[in-house]
Amino acid sequence: MAPYVNRRQSAQEEQHLPLSHATHQTILDEGNSTPKQISHLQFGLLSSSDMMRLAEFQVTSRDLFTMPQRSPAPYGVLDTRLGVSDKVSTCATCKLKLADCAGHFGYIKLALPCFHIGYMKHTLNLLQCICKSCSRVLLCDAERKGILKKMRNPRTDVLGKSSIFKKVMDKCKKNHVCPYCHRPNGTVKKVHGAPTLKIVHEKYKGRHMEDETEDLLQSLQGAMQSNPEISHALRVAVEDLLPTRVLELFRAMTDDDCEVLWVSPWIGRPENLILEHILVPPVPIRPSVAMDVGGGSNEDDLTVKLLEIINVNLALEVNMNRNPQTKTIMEGWDVLQSQVAQYINGDMPGLKKEIGHKPIRGLCQRLKGKQGRFRGNLSGKRVDFSARTVIGPDPNLRVDQVGVPVHVAKIMTYPEQVTRYNMEKLRERVRNGPDVHPGANLIRMAGEKTFAKSLAFGDRNRAAESLRIGDIVERHMEDGDVVLFNRQPSLHKLSIMSHQVKVLEWKTFRFNICVCAPYNADFDGDEMNMHLPQTEEARSEANLLMNVHQNIATPRNGEPLVAASQDFLSTAYLLTQRDQFFSKEMFCSLVAYFGLADEHVDVPMPAILKPIPLWTGKQVFTCIVKPNHQSRTFVNFEMKEKNYDSEKNEKYFCRNDGFVAFRNGELISGNIAKKTIGDGSKTGLLYVLLRDFGPTYAASFMDRFSKFCARYFGMHRGFSMGISDVSPSAKMKKMKFDILSAGYKRAEDAIRKYEEGILELRPGCDLLQSLEEILNGILGKLRESAGQEAMRTLPWSNTPRIMAECGSKGSPLNISQMMACVGQQAVGGNRIQDGFVNRTLPHFQYHSLTPSAKGFVANSFYSGLTATEFIFHTMGGREGLVDTAVKTAETGYMARRLMKALEDLSLRYDNSVRNSENTVVQFTYGDDSLSPEKMEANSRPVDFDRLRLSVSEVFPCIDEPILLKDQLLKKIDRSLGEDRFQSLLPNGRIFLTEIKSFFKDIVAKQEKATESCHNDVFIQQRMWNSCRFTDTQVNEFLKVALTKYTKGLLLSVGVYEACIV
Question: Which InterPro entries match (predicted)?
Answer without folding.
Answer: RNA_pol_asu, RNA_pol_N, RNA_pol_Rpb1_1, RNA_pol_Rpb1_3, RNA_pol_Rpb1_3_sf, RNA_pol_Rpb1_4, RNA_pol_Rpb1_5, RNA_pol_Rpb1_clamp_domain
